Amino acid sequence: MSDKDKKKGDAPEFPEQVTGMYILAHALKNVGLDCMYGVCGIPVTGLSYLCQEYGVRYIGFRFEQQAGMAAATHGYLTKTPGLLLTVSSLGFMNGLTATVNATVNCYPMIQISGSSAREPVDMDQGGYEDLDQLNVAKPLVKAAYRVNKLEDLPIAVARAYRAAVSGRPGGVYLDVVETMLSETVDRDVAEKWLFKPVDPCPAMIPSAESADRAVDMLANAKRPAILLGKGAAYAQVDEKIKTLIESSGIPFYPMSMAKGLMPDNHPLSALSCRSTIMEKADVVMLVGARLNWLLERGHGKWNPEGKFIQLDIDPVEMDRNRPIAAPVIGDLDSSLSLILEKLKGRKLAMDADWVPGLQKETKEKNAEFARRLAEHAKDRPMTHWTALGAMKPILEKNPDVIIVNEGANTLDDTRDTIDMFLPRHRIDCATWAIMGLGMGSCVGAAIATGKSVVAIEGDSAFGFSGMDFATICRFHLPVTVVVFNNGGIYNGIGVNLSHNGDPAPTTLDIDAHYEKIGEAFGAKGYYVTTPEELSAALTEAIASKKPNFIHVQLAADSGKQSGHIGYLNPEPLQNIIV
Ligand code: ADP
Ligand code: TPW
Ligand code: MG
Predict the structure, then answer these.
(1) Same domain, 563 and 526
(2) Which of 251, 440, 447, 550 is deepest in the core (most CB within 10 A)?
């Protein structure tokens, strides 16, 4: 049938003889992996076409790293591995950045990369785009496999799927050798190879003893707190978390991407009392959160007498930085079920004034924050706070909009200003604090959920992924990108120490018009300089359900070095940046 005769909904025709590409496309579809992000070229162009033809949606990007960020976000939001397709050599390497970042963040994804014929690679004979990709990927990702034989393709897909989602989720690399992709076999033979893996993400049941130990500690605590991490958001156990918190009355603190798992303004939210929780809590229950740099060193001044309960799927996570008095190893669904059951009817020893004290502090801190926002409403040119003050009521009126957020001040100030009310609605720089997730995450979030997305991007952060705004437009996604332009990394007033007039290292482009990037690809562009203009633009943009681009002009001196984590900077000999 020619393309012209083909009608929508016609079943694709199956050839008598099929190639490796065909088998791979079918194996993916067969296990329910029906969306792929990537950049095609030799040797995977045919695969991308076959995927489209046989019902695996293909989202073509400008840059593999961004396609990978989309796949990772897709995995995080759906608990199903996102797929990334890359070409050999540099395409593979560009995508690997995202696969490694997904592994660090415990997001499930599978990078499928075409690789060059083995012999010239193994003999170092200078083949086309030759690189020993499997061995490059192996130390950096959760699992890596190379598939060389047609009949192994369905097995390889099943293994990659299992490795990505089971236990602690992560990034998996699947190396598909170019020569195999074009080998052929009878269709009947190939179809018999296809199978569905049984229970690819099995429950991991914690021991009853571990749950008893945790429940005893929690029940006997005077000042307990529950610390929610993005693992808790990922696990999609929203109701159980709500029940645990509300039935026990224990206050909770959400890490950045766990904001919204419980509403930020919930009476038991201790979001504004981070230091008090750290310094005063005697038992902290970590739920899908790691005691890594975000809760340790300068960020963590824990009560020296305090004890930890940790609910996590990965046993190796325990005692990583501090002794864990009550480890509960299991998937959160199983662990929370068991803990809820054992908590029923238990009397808690919590001090009567613990929660009221936190509530009082919350009220005071929030009033102070509101006062500061109101004060900054008058800043001209606008500062981060002026812009966020204008955006806050609009975003909070649209709680089902997913927020993607990166930058330094832009990240920290947005997280502090915008309250979240629904689970898995905040995607940010996460564990590695990386820049360059923006446009990819917008695409992944919009495709995976069908929801509207607003990205709040520092001007530097946006630059890492900006070209893939084109992908947002090509797929007509309901995404609004908001760039906070303060003219640089942290701000636009880095002191110029060069001897030749070169710009300072942190200085970027204060006079740029980023909205024109949006217009170049057909989106509506807005250039705003006042909170009133910003409110009007954002309201219209969200309502349009189309791609939009808002350039927010800030003062060049808005923002400080490294945002809220300036203390991590090695001290230079002189204090260079204001
Ligand atoms: P945050 O940065 O929000 O503190 P982290 O990414 O550091 O969160 O921690 C997430 C943790 O959640 C990881 O240790 C991971 O093993 C764990 N995790 C992920 N999925 C599950 C699950 N289904 N059940 C239990 N633990 C999980
Ligand atoms: C992959 C280092 C941390 S924050 C940042 C950079 C470059 C940009 C901050 O400026 P921005 O926000 O986005 O304009 P604002 O509001 O503070 O002005 N490369 C990578 N990751 C990181 N984290 C960096 C560099 C960095
Ligand atoms: Mg900036």
Answers:
(1) yes
(2) 440
Would you tell me how many other CB atoms lie within 10 Å of the CB of residue 78?
A: 17
Best CA proximity match to 442, nearest among 396, 403, 388, 476:
403
Q: What's the 435 CA to ligand 3 centre distance in angstroms? A: 12
Q: Give the pTM.
A: 0.97
Provide the Cα torsion 115, 119, 121, 122; round to 10°.
130
For position 431, which CATH number holds?
A: 3.40.50.970
CA-nearest residue for atom 7, ligand 2, is: 489
Closest by Cα among 362, 313, 357 to 336: 313
Q: Which residues pair with 524 in a beta bridge?
A: 548
Protein residue whose Cα sits closest to atom 3 of ligand 2: 408
Q: Which atom of ligand 2 is nearest to the CA of 463?
A: 13
Find out whether 351 and 220 touch, Cβ atoms under 8 Å.
no
Q: Is residue 243 part of a domain?
A: yes
Q: Kindly report the number of other CB atoms within 10 A of residue 141's CB atom.
A: 22
**CATH code of the domain in which 300 resides:** 3.40.50.1220
Our mutation pick for probing the ligand 2 site, out of 388, 411, 460, 568, counting the most ligand atoms within 8 A of Cβ, is 460
- Please list all protein residues whose beta carbon sits less than 5 angstroms from ligand 3, which is an ion: 458-460, 486
Q: What is the DSSP string of 113-158?
A: EEE--HHHHHTT---TT---HHHHHGGGSSEEEEE-SGGGHHHHHH
Do 555 and 448 share a domain, yes or no? yes
Q: Give the count of beta carbons closer than 10 Å to the beta carbon of residue 518.
A: 26
Total of domains in the chain: 3
Query: pLDDT tens-digit profile of 118-139?
Result: 999 999 999 999 999 999 999 9
Q: Is the CB of 168 under 6 A from ligand 1?
A: yes
Tell me the pLDDT band of 8, cut-offs 50, 70 and 90.
low
Considering every ligand atom shown, identify the ligand nearest to the alpha carbon of residue 561 and give its number.
2
Asked if residue 458 has its Cβ within 6 Å of ligand 2, the reply is yes
